[in-house]
Protein 1
Amino acid sequence: MSAKRVFFYVQHLLGIGHIARASRIANAMAKDGFDVTVVTGGLPVPGFPAEGLKTIALPAVVAGKAGFSGLADANGNPATEDFLNARRDQLLAAFANAKPDAVIIEAFPFGRRQMRFELLPLLDAIAAANPRPKLFSSVRDILQENRKAGRDAETVKLVQEHFDAVLVHGDPDFVRLEDTFPLTPEIAGKVRYTGMVAPPPAADPAERFDIIASAGGGAVGLELIRAARDAARSLPAEYRWLLISGPNLPEADFQSLQDDAPANVTLVRFRKDFPSLLKGAKVSISQAGYNTVGDLLRTDCRAILIPFVAGGETEQTVRAKRLKAMGLAGILPETGLTAAHVAEAVTEAMDAPPRKAASLDLAGAETTAAIIRTMLG
């Protein structure tokens, strides 16, 4: 029997969290024997999707200057109607050619509303296909709150009319979908919890650093990395620091950080072996994004979380507070962050006993593959 075909759509606009999580799921599905095609819609990110996966790269769009409500092309110019129409047609042609048994759409309809110009036509194409593929929404465990009136009802309607299941990539003992999506009872029959999509336990690190500060994709992490760099000056010089700026930090900012870095600080944009480096580190300083937290929970590295809150973002704050309540992390505020704050938090973390092991389900990628296999029969 031929392998079941999966068509996996993922659109990242600002950071790299969405494509990193989708890549981990796609990897697990490929290892489980699925024929996976990952369709990406953002700027290229080193290491994602992983080598060996079939990929289709649509003409890239990113968040425009107006924020998530607007779209721009790879050069930062506002995306024109002709550009978006051509991209939509390319996506629909790729779907028709793939003839998948299952379609996974990352985030939508709980997020990525600005992609409706191509995703609503894709939903129609799925509904009209014969045989019709199963359709899954792949969503993180904590959603952005303070959504505009009517958005949740619109999401529920799309789920009820089009989707076979909503794959919630979280442990319900840590957080449940209804905690940040009040209308969950209306779609409860379609919700499937997978556990967190964390990497497998990491190999021992090729090199060791005492403290690692990371900024995810890097588009919004400059102040975190700068505060960590400056904190290194006031702490013992024998501490080895690794600062990971993220691939999206503007080049001028990267050079500024590098030009003024102390001798015990190494600055890079990206490390493919990040999970194993965390395994060898004593302290991690990072935002509270889904994937970074998943990496951390595979280790006993002490965590200092600085939740991203700009633009009214709430997701990372919810995650960080819950981890702190479980004794798994400390928290620093993003607003007004200084080197002194970071230095004090690092000193406390270095003096603290090793972090206790997390009791959360971290096998979300493998469970996702198992759920889809079962639903495909």
Protein 2
Amino acid sequence: MPLSDAYQPPRRGLSFELFPPKQAADMEALEVTVQKLLRYQPEFFTCTYGAGGSSRDRTLEVIERVQRVTGLSVASHLTCVGATVEELREYLREAVARGVDTIVALRGDPPKGEQSFQAVEGGLRYANELVELIRDEHPSMGIAVAGYPEVHQEAPDAETDLRNLRRKVDAGADVVITQLFYNNADFFRFRDAARAAGIGVPIIPGLLPITNLAQARKIASMCKASLPETLVARLSEHDSPEWQFEVGVEHARNQMLELIEDGVEGLHLYVLNRSQAAEKMLEGLETASV
């Protein structure tokens, strides 16, 4: 099924993002998580990808296992970090051989300890170049790219950021999946500006429910996402893990319900390989309405 079909009415495509576990025991736990998430009838899963070979093999292992367990498509993330064009081609060939039909194409963040992204010799500098490579050599492959409701941290302004996004879409991307955000006004502003800039593909909000304030602050700082002061204040009322889970998930659920009411074409949930928060968010909803 073409990726864009997941977002055609009456579908409102639901997807979940996973990451490759480091331990074998965690891989078993991931299968349990995936089984629980299946009840919400996702269109597909995605799996992240480590730069420089740090988790590439595990990414493919996760993809094969989740495909086997679910019978669904599992999209592989792919970045330009630390890879030559030939190494990217090699990964794509291997991914296709293992049944991958969708790529989440990203430039990628600088490796740990480095302040800025530097393409390796014989590599690619920008995500739109990666999209072009995939579209030229695997024309039937579904391609998702990233969008930034609060502007990419390296972009000087929102207008420049949108021009970069337009280049990725013009290169052949089917869908935009956004970075996490905690204020829906940021998403609506970004989506409206993208449409005005001529970006017509589905724009899918990415949500990460907060289950721990310290962890949320760390993740938000890494991607320059803002945490609403009122939400932080409420989360800070108690140190109890149960309190922070309930407050954070309630906020994410309210975000989701408002987005659905507004008519978004789909939802992408960053689940951090756990199902509890996503289950709580989706509790009581008809899958057709999700």
